[in-house]
Design goal:
Blueprint lengths: L11 E4 L3 H13 L5 E5 L7 H4 L11 H4 L15 H14 L6 E3 L1 E3 L2 E4 L4 E3 L2 E3 L21 E5 L3 H10 L5 E6 L5 E4 L4 H9 L2 H25 L1 H15 L22 E4 L2 H7 L3 E5 L2 E4 L3 E4 L4 E3 L2 E4 L13 E3 L2 E2 L7 E2 L3 E2 L16 H21 L2 E6 L29 E3 L6 H6 L5 E3 L10 H10 L6 E5 L12 E2 L1
Parallel strand pairs: 1-2, 1-25, 2-3, 5-17, 8-9, 8-16, 9-12, 10-11
Antiparallel strand pairs: 4-7, 5-6, 13-14, 14-15, 17-18, 19-20, 21-24, 22-23
Helix pairs in contact: 1-10, 5-9, 6-7, 7-8, 10-12
Protein name: Monooxygenase
GO molecular function: monooxygenase activity
Pfam family, one: NAD_binding_8
Length: about 500
């Protein structure tokens, strides 16, 4: 892998060499070929989440035709891919386009401060020793034997992908859930896509397949949101058909919410239900009261025997790797700030965050953000602008407007009365717990959250770039035409 060791200024700094980071790098080097950039990666490998997590059965819960890079089409027959395949795909894509040569491994962003006087960010970087050990195995495989009993706590994508693999290694596996999820079985190999590849040239086939996977899931999501009761009935009917007679539909598959208020659990070839049919796996819907030396005691009085307990209950969300962000020495509390077009943080110059979709492939949203960022950078370059910062209350006739975001509505400027909205539209527990740390969105103008890929993709390429942004001309700060540093 390439290494950029010499200290220097970069036009763009990207934090993280995962899926979103590699995609952002491609967009920068393609859209802004005269700009220098680097990727700072705290670990020693490309891949982000897909390299960090190595638990048995790890896979995507989105199809790779849309979860993959739009500039490097997924060519494999399996649309729902395993973690190893995804990790290799990210690495190969980075190497193919020379992105790997721009990565500085073992470099971790410690903090970031913007100086309004200097019009530059200062970002201390910790250079981690290359001799530092790297822990690769985050799964329990080495401790599992055919005599072991396992309890998986959780009912989301992680638990659903673990169970079919673990029954092959243990004597019995129990999925213990507090609340049920919706499940849907899909073929692991998309025969229609294979047929399209046989009929059309590769470049046409890739586009047709991608559009198929863009449109059909979007239509299904729209149906679920507009006809929730009908969608719930249909999903439960399909689940009932897949279940073995020994596993009741209620309470194990009766969520308290409607479809797509939380993500659906994807089961390639119905592998989850096939695991239940073996008799080596079961589901318990209950609440934990205590963990004992021999297993778990639940609120209903059951004691579930276990040699191994695996928690698959969601992650703690974090933006920017947890590095403190300040402007002129003042700490930025993200929860108190709004997002401009779901990408730039209010009153933070020349900085952007990558947030994908919750109701579609994450990469679709991260690519929309990357394209938008590149357009903003081009605009700044072409108009000799030193910095751009989203600002509430910034009307064409009110260049120094401001707004207080302490209440649930904005009280000044063009966005008076704007209602506060969550940046992620899911009711999942890990999303609910993150509301106190994530930025906010509104119900007006450029402060609205992303709605769907088709609208947002058009907006990223053709939409307005100036409403809600405050620009500082380079001439006003004594800067040259070329801005020295811009952070992504």
């Amino acid at each position: 892998m390439g290494s950029v060791d010499a200290p220097k200024d970069y036009d763009v700094i990207i934090i993280g060499a995962g899926l979103s980071g590699i995609n952002a790098a491609y967009r920068v080097q393609t859209e802004l070929p005269d700009y220098s950039y680097t990727i700072l990666e705290a670990r020693d490998v490309i891949g982000g989440t897909w390299d960090l997590f190595r638990y048995p059965g790890i896979r995507s819960d989105s199809d790779l035709h849309t979860f993959g890079f739009p500039w490097r089409p997924w060519q494999h027959s399996k649309a729902i891919a395993d973690g190893t395949s995804i990790r290799n795909y990210i690495r190969d894509s980075a190497e193919h386009f020379g992105i790997d040569k721009q990565i500085q491994f073992h470099h971790k962003l410690m903090s970031s401060d913007w100086s309004s006087n200097e019009q530059i960010p200062t970002s201390p970087i910790s250079h981690l020793s290359k001799a530092r050990p790297s822990i690769r195995n985050s799964g329990p495989e080495t401790s599992i034997t055919p005599t072991k009993k396992i309890i998986i706590i959780g009912s989301g994508a992680t638990a659903v992908s673990l169970l079919p693999v673990l029954i092959e290694k243990a004597s019995h596996v129990t999925m213990l859930q507090r609340s049920p999820s919706y499940f849907i079985s899909i073929p692991s190999v998309d025969t229609t896509s294979d047929l399209i590849r046989k009929i059309f040239p590769s470049w046409i086939a890739s586009r047709l397949i991608r559009w198929k996977f863009l449109i059909l899931p979007f239509l299904f999501f729209t149906f679920c949101r507009h006809f929730p009761a009908m969608a719930k009935k249909g999903l439960r009917k399909r689940i009932q058909e897949d279940l073995p007679p020994s596993v009741p539909l209620d309470p194990h598959f009766n969520p308290s919410y409607y479809p797509w208020e939380q993500r659906l659990c994807i089961c390639p070839d119905g592998d989850f239900f096939s695991a239940l049919k073996t008799g080596k796996a079961d589901i318990v819907t209950d609440t934990i009261t205590s963990v004992t030396t021999t297993g778990i005691t639940t609120q209903s009085g059951q004691h579930l025997d276990a040699d191994i307990i695996i928690t698959a209950t969601g992650l703690k969300m974090q933006l920017g790797g947890g590095a403190p962000l300040t402007v002129d020495g003042e700490k930025v509390v993200l929860h108190d700030r709004f997002l401009w077009k779901n990408t730039m943080v209010e009153k933070v110059p020349n900085a952007a965050v990558i947030i994908g979709y919750t109701n579609a492939s994450w990469t679709l949203g991260s690519d929309t953000a990357a394209l938008l960022i590149c357009r903003v950078l081009k605009f700044m370059r072409d108009h000799n602008i030193s910095s751009a910062a989203p600002t509430l209350g910034l009307n064409p006739s009110e260049q120094n407007g401001s707004a207080s975001t302490g209440d649930k509505t904005v009280q000044s400027g063009e966005w008076r009365g704007m209602k506060e909205m969550a940046v992620l539209n899911l009711s999942s527990t890990y999303v609910e717990k993150a509301k106190g740390i994530l930025p906010k969105t509104g119900d007006k103008g450029p402060w609205r959250p992303r709605s769907n890929y088709f609208v947002d993709g058009w907006g990223a390429v053709f939409g307005d770039l100036t409403t809600g942004l405050r620009f500082v001309p380079a001439s006003a700060t004594g800067k040259a035409n070329r801005v020295d540093k811009k952070s992504v």
